[in-house]
Amino acid sequence: MARAAVSGRLTWRVAELADAADLTKSARSLVFDVPGWPGHLPGQHVDVRLTAEDGYSVQRSYSISSASDGERIELAVQRVADGEVSPYLCDVLAVGDKIELRGPVGGWFVWRATDQAPVTLVAGGSGIAPLMSMIRARASEGSRVPFRLVYSVRTPEDVMFADELRQRAREDGGLDVRLVYTRRTPEGSPEPPGRLGVATLNTHGWPAEFTPNCFVCGPTGFVESVSDILVALGHDPRRVRTERFG
């Protein structure tokens, strides 16, 4: 059983793009149908492989942003101007086109609905992707575990899943969303832009004495800074789980 599961995760599968939509001006949601997909835990990722006609191939890892849903998964891809993979996924790949992917990958940066500890989610930019999988899985499981999301972005236009987050925060009393803008705030906001710091995490994350699970995802510098702050605030380092990129 265990060997079969591992083998399945390492198998390259053909995935067909079923739907796509812009999340921001530089990010896109891609929904794939993946025959034989074994399911995934919220927080896991996949490896995506593109192969040119001359045989040259390149692969990148992308977090899954959807809850487990049969043989369908969603990826949130941030376009990197000089990248080899993201411009193709965001600007060229069309519904009906196929790529290769394998997974799910990862077993540490995951949330399980059986864990009843409160959850603090901290995202920087496109680091929201695996945290959205956790938020969606919580809803699909009917979990009452309280979630707090602190999401740092440059401007209001850079908020990925903006409409969904607003709706979920409005309709779900167990989900609190705090947006932090580092470059420009919404018009009329009384707060100036600024980096995510101790005061915000102390106010909008769960207190250390509640022994929450903390999931932090974003660029390396962001993740290291947030992790250091959480530990300084008294959080158990074993409960601070990180995923970084860049």
UniProtKB/TrEMBL annotation:
Pfam families in UniProt: FAD_binding_6 (PF00970), NAD_binding_1 (PF00175)
Cofactor: FAD
Top-level taxon in the UniProt lineage: Bacteria
Keyword line: 2Fe-2S, Iron, Iron-sulfur, Metal-binding
Position of the signal peptide: none
Keyword Iron: yes
Keyword Nucleotide-binding recorded: no
FAD-binding FR-type domain sequence ranges: 10-111
Annotated protein name in UniProt: Ferredoxin-NADP reductase
